[in-house]
Every structure is written in C-alpha cells, then in structure tokens.
C-alpha cells in the first residue's frame, strides 16, 4: 500500500479530509467496504485479552452528576496570552481537554524526545478547577512524526506504537477520563478508497494496528474510557451510511477479539448544506448500545460556508444543525459527553482550512469573537443539563 499524503502540507491534507467533494488521493487501490472482514482486523497475534478493570470502565466515564458533561477543547498556546479565552472554558465547560498537545508528533517528536508541557498545562488547569479532562489521540494519520514514517519493519512500528501509548497512558493515568485511541481510520470515501484510510500505520502494520493500540491503551490505564473517533458519521447519504457501517464493523471486530472499546466518538464537524440523518443516527446509537458501547460527540463545530453572509443566518443554521444532531442522539439515549472544538470564533481551524468563499467571517463556535454565547450554546446547555 502506498501513502499519498506525505508530501502535502498539513493544511491541504486537512482540507482534503474535510472536503469530500475533493478528489480522492490518487493511486490508492480501491477495496469495497465489505472487504473489512471480521478476521481481517484481528490478524495473527492481535486478539488480546481484555485488560483487568476495562470491563467496569465501560460503565464509568465522563457523565457528571445532573446531566451530560459539556466539554471544550482548548489550544494551550492561547491560554496565557488571552485570559478571556481561558476563563470562557471555566464559565461554560465541565470537561477541558488539550486540542493538540497530546497528538503523537507534538508530544513525541523524536524517539527519545517528549514534550508534555503544553498538555500538562491544560490538564493541570482542568483538574485544579475541578473539571474533567480527556486525551486525543494516539493513532492519527494527521500527526505522524517523520521518525515513525521511517520505521522500516512491522516489529519496529509495533514496538514504537506500543511504547508510545504505554508511556503516555501511564503518565496521565487517573487524570484523564479516557482517550481517543484511534482517530479517523475510516476511509474518507469508502466506496472508492475504503474501508480503511491509507495511513502510515495501515501501511506498516495493517488493520491490526487498531487492536494493538486499544490493547496497549487498556494496559496503560485500565480505567480509561477508550474511544474510536471519526468524522462524517452524522449525515444523510450513502457515503455516511457506509462510514457508520464500517465503524460498527470495527467495533464488533474489536469485541470479537476481546479488545476493549468503550465508546464511539462522533466528531460532529457539522456542515451547512448537509442534513443530519436522524433515523440513521438513532439506529447507529441503538446498535452501539446493544453492543455495550457508548456514543459521544467529540469535536463539535459548524462549517457555515454555504450559509448567506449574515450573523443571524449563520447562527440560525448552526442552531438547526445542533438541534437536529441532539434530537437524533437523544432519541435513543443521552450521549456520554459533548465536546466543542474550541469555544469562541476567535480561534478555530475552520477559517484556515475551510474559509467561506465570500470572505465573510466564519462563525464556527458557540461563543462569538466577543465571547458572547450564541443561541446554540444555550440550546446545548439546556439539553445536556436535562440529560
Ligand atoms: O483544530 C486542530 C488544529 O488546531 C490543528 O492544527 C490540527 C492539526 O493537529 O488539528 C485540528 O483538529 C483536527 C482534529 O485533531 C481531528 N479532526 C479534525 C480537526 C480539524 O482539522
């Protein structure tokens, strides 16, 4: 398998992920979603025992007394320079997590180099203020350091992955409610590229990198809620149906191999112009529940580029999208947490990667640039509080 994104800059990589209409990476060998068989994920030696304590961890986690926790992902680089930004997380969030500080290439840029400072700052801030925190993410195509790309045997890749996860999981044990263990492993368009995304980890280890990562995470912190996280699981259309099916397939395969997986993380990057699949999501949630696996929203924000250029129109679209998403999830049962990806329009990846074509400012987050809550923040809070 060849990797196609190596030469591109991070921004264009992210754009291609979040722009399904963009051409699929050239040269990939198409496989059908059906080729992810139950056996294929759990290659020889990958079926690892459920770590002690992990079964009970499935029943614990981030649910706060009195409702569903509202989380916020914070960018450590703005915390000290912008006190209003930092305070906004205390004003609104039950859970405060590092947006980027625990990604592989940032925390572990060279084999013997670790940079825990930015993540520690966020986790300390959360815990000192009696908030929860969680970690993202061990396996992600978008944060693979060069040294990992250069590992030239499967054994070396597996050792590096396991060592990374064990070391970092152990360091944050008891301080994080859980981890996005693998992020964005499903092909962007399963019909032409799928079922799994072509990544360095897939190239080096095959699909078994997924159970390897979950098993290592469970060993490192047996109480942590282990999450498989992905985008584009929410909408109406065959591409989204296929992505939900693949997600269920991965969860079932992990369970078949006795590998602990406790929740599916639905990123929730919601697009104006797309429709939330209320029935499809309810079915998805119900099936996860039947499997004993929870559902959480992990990266909620709004990509409003197909909305007329007015604050009122953009906020109305955002409100409707969030309302539809919550209706769809709550139709079965409350989610385990809902986390917004940032908190204020001051700082977001959306204008960098998916700017509005008309140049009007994006309004991706629940607080505006002056930290005033938009109607969808009130909606979110009242739905989550009611639980
Ligand atoms: O919002 C994040 C941005 O600050 C980072 O520069 C970027 C690369 O690490 O990642 C962004 O977050 C992504 C997340 O980790 C995975 N889902 C898509 C998010 C937006 O691109």
Can you describe what's shown?
Strands 1, 2, 3, 4, 5, 6, 7, 8 and 9 form a nine-stranded parallel beta sheet that branches. Residues 1-39 and 42-64 have low confidence and may be disordered. Helix 13 links the parallel strand 5 and strand 6. The protein is 41% helix and 12% strand. It is built from 17 helices and nine strands. The chain is globular, with a radius of gyration of 19 Å. The protein has 387 residues and is α/β, with parallel strands linked by helices. It has helices at residues 10-18, 38-41, 54-57, 76-79, 83-92, 104-107, 117-128, 146-149, 154-171, 190-193, 200-205, 209-220, 238-256, 278-290, 311-330, 350-353, 375-386, and strands at 70-74, 95-98, 135-140, 178-183, 225-230, 263-266, 269-271, 294-303, 338-340. It binds ligand 9MR. The site of ligand 9MR has 12 residues, from helix 1.
The value of Rg in angstroms is 19 Å
Describe the biggest sheet? Answer: 9 strands, parallel
* Straight-line distance between termini: 45 Å
Overall body shape: globular
Q: How helical, in percent, are the residues? A: 40-55%
Describe the structure in brief.
This protein has 387 residues and is an alpha/beta fold.
Keywords:
387 residues; alpha/beta; nine-stranded parallel sheet; 17 helices
How does the SSE layout of this entry go?
Elements: H1 10-18, H2 38-41, H3 54-57, E1 70-74, H4 76-79, H5 83-92, E2 95-98, H6 104-107, H7 117-128, E3 135-140, H8 146-149, H9 154-171, E4 178-183, H10 190-193, H11 200-205, H12 209-220, E5 225-230, H13 238-256, E6 263-266, E7 269-271, H14 278-290, E8 294-303, H15 311-330, E9 338-340, H16 350-353, H17 375-386
Parallel strand pairs: 1-2, 1-9, 3-4, 4-5, 5-6, 6-8, 7-8, 8-9
Helix pairs in contact: 9-12, 13-14, 14-15, 15-17
Bound molecules: ligand 9MR.
